[in-house]
Amino acid sequence: MGTETVQKASDLERGMKMLEYLERGPWPSYVTELKRTKYPIEAYAEGLARKYTPWLSGSFRVRYVFSGILARRSRDGKFVEIHFRTYAPAGRFYSTSYLRKVVEVAKRYGIGLMEFGGNTGALVLNMIAEKADEAVDAIRTIMGSDVGGSGDTFREFYACPGPALCEFALYDTLHAMDYIRSHPAFYRYLNTQMFPYKIKFKFSGCPMDCATANSRADFALIGTWVGAPEVDQGLFRKMVEEGKINPKEIVDSCPSKAISWNEEKKELNIDGSKCLKAMNCIKKAFPAIRPGRNRKIALLVGAHIQGHFGPKLARAVALLDSVEEIVPFATELINKYMELAPRRHRIGDMIIRRGFKVISEVADKTLPNKTRGTPSSHLRISIGTNLTDDEREMYENWAKQVTSEYFGGGSGSR
């Protein structure tokens, strides 16, 4: 037996022991689930033992499909994996009937392995290479979805659950995502790679921006309102009397100092001209404090984490009354992007190179009567939401307790 063969056997043995360890604990183990599929678990075990991936990049072609297909092969050439990215339902709401269709396709044409809501947000199916052409037809006819979301095209669209689950939603993010993705102006690009680089649409229902549209989307649609939040003074006073909220904390939580508390009248006042839509007061005192009734959709463009000129936040364009109003603007801007941007430059990179004037000219043409943003304005949109110190401490203590109970020692134990 050669040295290389002995080493390979040793790596496999060590790797399988590592996988046994990963099946311990109170939580479901992905290793146990992988063993139930046709996934090459031994190749994965060898990779763990050697501390580098057992996979190398590969390529694969399916007729008339130019996006959403990724391939890789094992280092020894024994295994090939074909991944299909498919478009997921808005808000990631999977009905049981839809899941049965997904499982049927995965079993019939794949290795039985599915990934829901990974890094890309897409539903990823691992397919058998010999059945790839048939699998595309099955995804379209059985699942009612399509393959796409990789390469220089539209990446997976993403919407927060919006009005389906959240009391803070200021517009229907689920309808908005379905409307944009299925619109002929955008749908025709889903299976092609005609753009200089990828384009992302994200839909957040309120300024807390749970979809991270303000920091990760080329086109961000974020629910907002004009003016001050709405305050139910009677309910607010009642919550203060019951000790549920502290008016001083509400005042101090406002980053722009737009809130004041009148101790004599027991009245909370908010200056709408200063309100940054940070949502801090609303989170602390809901439903006594609610978003204002003059609701809009903020349109922002050009955000991404990685780019030629570093990470960028989105730049404000306009306040819209409905999602339908974005279509002429987006189609015109995409045409400009295809004309002006070099390869592997995002829309945000194009703005750096060409100036915000490119955006302004398109907005002047397609959104002539809308409240406009400026290059330095975010239309009062904050970025994300953070855990409080108490919440961080609670989760940290819980993690330490679970680790100690099942593996012994503190968080640093192995």
If you had to describe this structure to a student in words, what would you say it looks like?
- This protein is an alpha+beta fold and 414 residues long.
- The chain folds into three domains: 3-143, Alpha-Beta Plaits (2-Layer Sandwich), CATH 3.30.70; 158-226 and 294-366, Sulfite Reductase Hemoprotein, domain 1 (2-Layer Sandwich), CATH 3.30.413.10; 230-290, Alpha-Beta Plaits.
- It has helices at residues 3-22, 30-35, 41-50, 96-109, 132-143, 173-182, 184-187, 213-216, 233-241, 247-252, 280-285, 326-340, 347-354, 357-366, 389-407; strands spanning 55-58, 69-74, 80-86, 110-115, 123-127, 158-159, 201-204, 219-225, 230-231, 259-262, 267-270, 289-290, 295-301, 315-320.
- Strands 1-2-3-5-4 form a five-stranded antiparallel β-sheet, covered by helices on one side. It has a five-stranded mixed β-sheet with strand order 6-7-8-13-14.
- α8 links the parallel β7 (201-204) and β8.
- α12 (326-340) packs antiparallel against α14.
- 35% of the residues are buried.
